[in-house]
Sequence to fold (132 residues):
Amino acid sequence: MNVVIMGCGRVGAMLAEVLDSDGHNVAILDIEPYNLRKLSPNFKGNALVGNGLEDESLKKAGIEQADVFVSATQGDNRNVMACQIAKHIYNVPRVVSRIYDPIREEMYRNLGIESVSPTKVVAELLRDKVVG
Fold:
């Protein structure tokens, strides 16, 4: 599977490493070169400095052959915009976005963008620890 990830923070880097070790073709983009240092030396994918909202960067990352696009930056708006570009301009079959705001997560899901809200996930895990 060909995967393009936007955002090489802790989550994006870890996801890239896991998918790479599973044998998938992974490209990861970040606007900050320093963030790419989060990837281990064992990462065999393509680590690129670039903006996941720009055609040139997306094409270098292989968006035209991507089976999946994941946006994992700190910004909900950037993540959703990038997913819409991947889905509607490049026709990537599956797009997934990290959305911090649980209300937005539901709205974007209704627009056809798969999303995960770490805020919601962590709150549910903590609730289970408190009451379980």
In short: The chain has one domain: 2-131. The CA atoms of residues 12 and 72 lie 6 Å apart. DSSP finds five helices and six strands in the chain. The longest helix spans residues 76-89.
